[in-house]
Amino acid sequence: MSEIGIEELAARLGELTVVDVRTPAEYDGSGGQPCDPRHGHIPGARNVDVYRLMEMSPERVHVELGLERGTEIVAYCHSGARSAIATQVLRSLGYDARNYVGSWHEWSRHDDLPIER
Predict the structure, then answer these.
(1) What are residue 81's DSSP bridge partners?
(2) E-strand spans in 1-117?
(3) What digits encode the pLDDT tens for the residues 10-39?
(4) Is residue 38 domain-resident?
(5) What CATH number did the domain enclosing 88 receive?
(6) Domain tally for the chain?
(7) Tell me: the pLDDT tens digits for 37-87?
(8) Whole-angstrom Cα distance, residue 2 to residue 59?
(9) Which domain holds residue 94?
(10) Who contacts 40 (Cβ-Cβ below 8 Å, separation ≥6)?
(11) Is residue 75 part of a domain?
C-alpha cells in the first residue's frame, strides 16, 4: 500500500510520522498557495524540502528528521506530486513510506481538521 487517504491520516494523527516536503515558507504558512483557504502544516509534521531530501544520505535523513526504520511514514506536499517523489526516495532508503495524495490542497479545506503554523 503506497497511498493514504484523509480519513485514515486524520484518525491516525500522532501515531504516524508525517513528513511535509513543501518549502519552509509553505510549511510555516508564510508562503502558502493562494488557492488554499488555510495555511500552515499538519500538526506534528516534520519539514524537509523534497529537493533537499533527494540529496540526503540515509544517515542525514535519520539525524535531521529523526526517522526510524520500521516507522510508518506519510509524506505530503501541496497536491501530491512532490510527496510522490519523496515517498519513492524514502522507500529507496529503506523506510515504510506512503503518499498522502490529497496533500495540503485537500487538508486545508476541512475546517474540522487541525493545522499548525
Answers:
(1) none
(2) 3-4, 17-20, 46-47, 72-76, 96-100
(3) 999 999 999 999 999 999 999 999 999 999
(4) yes
(5) 3.40.250.10
(6) 1
(7) 999 999 999 999 999 999 999 999 999 999 988 889 999 999 999 999 999
(8) 23
(9) 3-107
(10) 27, 28, 29, 32, 115, 116, 117
(11) yes
- The model carries a pTM of 0.96
Q: Within 13 Å of residue 75, how many CA atoms lie on the same side as its CB?
A: 26
Residue 80 lies in a domain: yes
Give the Cα separation of 50 and 109 in Å (integer): 23
Residue 68 burial (CB < 10 Å; 0-12/13-18/19+)? exposed
Is 14 part of any domain? yes
Q: Which of 111, 49, 56, 116 is nearest to 78 (CA)?
A: 49
